[in-house]
Design brief:
Helix content: 55-70%
Distance between the termini: 64 Å
Strand order of the largest sheet: 2-4-5-7-6
Strand content: 5-15%
Number of helices: 13
Number of domains: 2
Oligomer: single chain
Shape: elongated
Low-confidence stretches: 326-330
Mean pLDDT: 83
């Protein structure tokens, strides 16, 4: 009996044996019952049987080995459903991998017990079976990983949203104490520290909320209105110049500055980039901000002086939760959660623009290019 015929005939028996193993590797807090544990195993076995029954060329085998024969993203399979269900039930990757190892071992053991001979055809069937199991495992892992990442992002979004209300109460209370008490109030410094810490926490929460919007909603939404980019740059430079004394900030704006953009979001981008330049630049060296462009697009270049960023860091600098080494940054930069550049890139992408970085021994330059109209 061929392996495909055996699996089709013995799928219930295989599932029964597999369930016994699955019961030993499920999370302690899982509420899945005996029937739910075998939820997708028979569907996975049917797909494997269908795969084994199809003729396969050497080219098709090579494509499968590269992962090019996996199910389409829109196609729902038993393996994908299995991965999603395990993510929802709190399984670890190791626990899910062990389920597929057990499935492979169970099928081969039961089949070989019924074989009275073992030839080249049987060996080829085992090879095809291993490929089919690996394909199912790959689909399951991708589905598992996607659901786990989505759950993490949802958690961050809910956490950030729910923290804002009590934090706002703390900041309002500190502000009222500072404004209603006399200048020589004994607790003025304490109230000021509370307000500064609350402001920093609010910035972190805002970044987390923008991060989850970017990951879950297909990008951070932008609302375009005609505005003056030069005026926005001058406002950012003026506000940041008073807060970051370690580096003077200069602005040159020879290019045209009118366009249709989201003023609040672009202010967020420019603030993140200028603050980043101040934190990682040489103390006392100027931060040079230059507005340029043409009739079709505007560009903003932000340059600081400092050590060259390694090419390996440049390749990942816009990824979330990435930070440069502590020896390159101020204490403020080291305490960052590493979302500023990711959020800047996401907002620029929402304007259909680009953001690039170049670094040499003379310093580092971030360049933002924005189409003037949608």
């Amino acid at each position: 009996m061929s392996l495909a015929q055996f699996i089709a005939k013995s799928s219930k028996r295989i599932a029964d044996e597999w369930v016994k193993f699955a019961a030993t590797c499920m999370p302690a807090a899982s509420s899945m019952n005996l029937n739910e544990r075998r939820d997708h195993i028979e569907a996975i076995l049917r797909r494997i049987t269908e795969d084994l029954a199809q003729p396969q060329t050497s080219r098709q085998q090579a494509e499968k080995a590269k992962g090019n024969a996996d199910a389409e993203p829109s196609e729902e399979t038993g393996a994908k459903s299995h991965g999603s269900a395990r993510a929802e039930s709190g399984y670890s990757p190791d626990q899910m991998f062990s389920e597929f190892r057990a499935l492979r071992a169970c099928v081969l053991r039961l089949w070989l017990e019924e074989q009275d001979r073992f030839d080249r055809a049987a060996f080829d069937e085992i090879t095809r079976f291993d490929e089919a199991v690996d394909q199912a495992l790959a689909e399951s892992v991708l589905s598992f990983s996607a659901d786990v990442e989505k759950a993490k992002d949802l958690f961050l979004g809910v956490l950030g949203h729910d923290l804002r209300t009590p934090l706002a109460a703390v900041m309002i209370g500190a502000t009222l104490m500072m404004t209603r008490e006399a200048a020589d109030w004994a607790h003025a410094k304490t109230a000021a520290r509370i307000l500064r810490s609350g402001t920093r926490m609010d910035e972190i929460i805002r970044d987390l909320l923008d991060f989850t919007r970017g990951r879950l909603g297909g990008g951070i939404p932008v609302s375009r209105h005609e505005m003056d980019l030069d005026a926005l740059l001058r406002q950012c430079v003026d506000e940041l110049g008073g807060a970051h004394h370690r580096c003077p900030i200069t602005l040159a704006s020879p290019g045209p500055s009118i366009g249709s953009w989201d003023r609040a979001r672009l202010g967020q981008v420019l603030t993140n980039l200028i603050v980043n330049a101040c934190q990682h630049g040489v103390e006392g060296a100027p931060i040079e901000v230059t507005l340029g462009g043409d009739d079709a697009s505007a560009s903003v270049a932000i340059h600081n002086q400092g050590k060259m960023i390694a090419p390996s860091h440049l390749n990942t600098i816009f990824e979330p939760f990435r930070r440069l080494g502590a020896n390159r940054a101020t204490d403020a930069a080291s305490s960052s959660i590493g979302l500023g550049l990711y959020i800047a890139k996401t907002i620029v992408a929402g304007h259909h623009g680009t953001i690039a970085v170049a670094s040499t021994t003379g310093g580092t330059t971030f360049t933002v290019r924005l189409p003037r109209h949608a």
